[in-house]
Amino acid sequence: MSTSGGRPKELGAFLRTRRAELTPQQVGLPSDGAPRRVAGLRRAEVARLASISTDYYTRIEQGRMPASTPVLEALARALRLSPDQRAYLLGLAGRPPAEPPARATAEVTEHNRRLLAQLATGPAVVLTRTMDVLAWNPPAAALLTDFGRHPVRDRNYVWLLFNDPVLRSRYRDWADGARACVAHLRMHTARRPDDPRLHRLLARMADHVDFQRWWQAREVAVQASGNKRFRHPLVGDLTLDWDTLTSATAPDQHIVVWTAEPGSASEHRLHALAARTGAAAPPGPAAGPATDTRLGAPEPT
Fold this sequence. Notes:
- Pfam families: HTH_31 (PF13560), MLTR_LBD (PF17765).
- By secondary structure, this protein is an alpha+beta fold.
- The protein has two domains: 8-92, 434 Repressor (Amino-terminal Domain) (Orthogonal Bundle); 110-295, Beta-Lactamase (2-Layer Sandwich), CATH 3.30.450.
- It is built from 13 helices and five strands.
- The protein has a five-stranded antiparallel sheet with strand order 2-1-5-4-3.
- A hairpin with a 2-residue loop joins β4 (236-247) and β5 (250-259).
- α4 runs antiparallel to α5.
- It is elongated.
- The protein starts with 7 loop residues before the first helix and ends in a 24-residue tail after the last helix.
């Protein structure tokens, strides 16, 4: 089976990066005692673990020969790839089939806008796969940053995490959070390598040393839930869980919601933050119209 539609050069770079992170001892190979010019496994060692010839593996890594699905699976096992890394490897090889094209519009759906409005104290934002911020509720602006004071072209969570000093300062573990966002973006490149929004963002991040270092590390991850620690100047430290909700009617839009453990100090501080900033969303069945910037709606163009 060919890798038609794949990205052989990036696949090879990904394999090189992953084998550089392993030692013979980690994968159960004896050390021959000979000095190594570079860190990590040699090509011959990866080939041995995957039960293929060194020449075949070399051609795959150099982007000169496609690899069948069984060989890719063998390489994933040899390199101890995580499930996300394995999915990324298969995506680079053109398998599974690419996802359908992204929607041309960046308008948040009315359902997602209404859901945001009804979240009283839980911070929530609507993001695209490339982490463009389409909408947010008042608690999110109070906890993270006032997205509305940024022009539409800058309303991208990754861009703001590196460029907005307010959002950056709210993360107690900024490097961990930023690195996770970069891994999420890298995962998106295998799914939709030609996404123009992604390429515009990458071009704008070209001068950020940390971003480029983590991008070249080729770490990948699907971010669906987790835990984040924040530090807010008004209420102090908060530890919040976050979850990602995807609408069946808008699969390219995800609602990220932060919540606190019931009865915890973080829950108390989250309620206090909403009260002190007037960020508690008002009750009601619906949010405002598409131009309601209080809910972080896109500005008219």
